[in-house]
Amino acid sequence: xxxxxxxxxxxxxxxxxxxxxxxxxxxxxxxxxxxxxxxxxxxxxxxxxxxxxxxxxxxxxxxxxxxxxxxxxxxxxxxxxxxxxxxxxxxxxxxxxxxxxxxxxxxxxxxxxxxxxxxxxxxxxxxxxxxxxxxxxxxxxxxxxxxxxxxxxxxxxxxxxxxxxxxxxxxxxxxxxxxxxxxxxxxxxxxxxxxxxxxxxxxxxxxxxxxxxxxxxxxxxxxxxxxxxxxxxxxxxxxxxxxxxxxxxxxxxxxxxxxxxxxxxxxxxxxxxxxxxxxxxxxxxxxxxxxxxxxxxxxxxxxxxxxxxxxxxxxxxxxxxxxxxxxxxxxxxxxxxxxxxxxxxxxxxxxxxxxxxxxxxxxxxxxxxxxxxxxxxxxxxxxxxxxxxxxxxxxxxxxxxxxxxxxxxxxxxxxxxxxxxxxxxxxxxxxxxxxxxxxxxxxxxxxxxxxx
Length: 452
Known about the structure:
This is Transporter. With 452 residues, the protein is mainly α. The chain has a single domain, classed as Up-down Bundle (Amino acid/polyamine transporter I), CATH 1.20.1740. It contains 17 helices and four strands. The longest helix has 35 residues.
């Protein structure tokens, strides 16, 4: 990074920013959620709609958050303050920033636990507790998941704590020496691991059937309801409403082309999500494993596949290592949303803000999420476990409402200032602004109603 003012830094290059945003938006969204949703919702039909949704709502909303974040270059709360068009902005708009923070807390509450699950799998593969040297059955992988994940709270808490500690070490070094430097290493590593897994999968016997399922849409499965559902998943896929893009954009140089960076970001996210499918579906079809097993696809179905492969345990470790890297690049940036806000709102030192953020989320979020599978499994909220409640409230309510408020904020509060900040050509700016002002809110309302 380079110093832009005495109080704010900017990314050292467009590539660094794009890699950081790509890391923020990949995570479990691309490597875990996207593949199982594809498997549940008709393969190629879901992929086709996902690509379409990126154009309909993805790129326009990335620009919304870019504009809000870079405008006055402050944290995700104060980004909704200041002045616009010669008038003071009502402080009530800052509630959108607080909603984003609450949503970030909610997602990290269970997201870090997923990281603990993955580390547990790696540890079990290396130690031989999960032996894949010979073919295993769905009963075997289900029993392992139940015994070592759901009913092993001490181990999961330890692995989750290790994952949190890895985040702490990087975050403590700051934006430049921590996040930026780690992303320069982690993202290329992610790409290398991804390529290794794709090559292994597409060269398996019968892999073409999986590729056909994945890429060729069955248009009879494309419905209005599915498209609305896919639109909602784009929010998770691009970290919209988290405050992540607002925070990262606050460190973006004023001379940077927002349209170009937003387009590249969405394309990279889509390509990596698509690539994740290539490292999963060919192998599922090659070994006759059903692709529609839902959230357990990665944790219960894929180990069966690896057990049929040559050097399956090695490829399983590579695969789960890839998941850890993807999760780390995302968790770092979500944590940073809360840390930056806490620093700038309270004047705490960075290390104090990090300790409070990571420690607070671990105690109030991670521990309850782990215990919700076992010790506290009888505790439910509206029929959902604590783990599922964090996921539902953050992903289906807070993020969508924050994104809705952000679009309205740009269209009805920032107005001409948003157009100026975008810095694009007059025709594109006019089309984008009116689309964000009048169309995007309607789309988000429909998505929100559908998600309840």
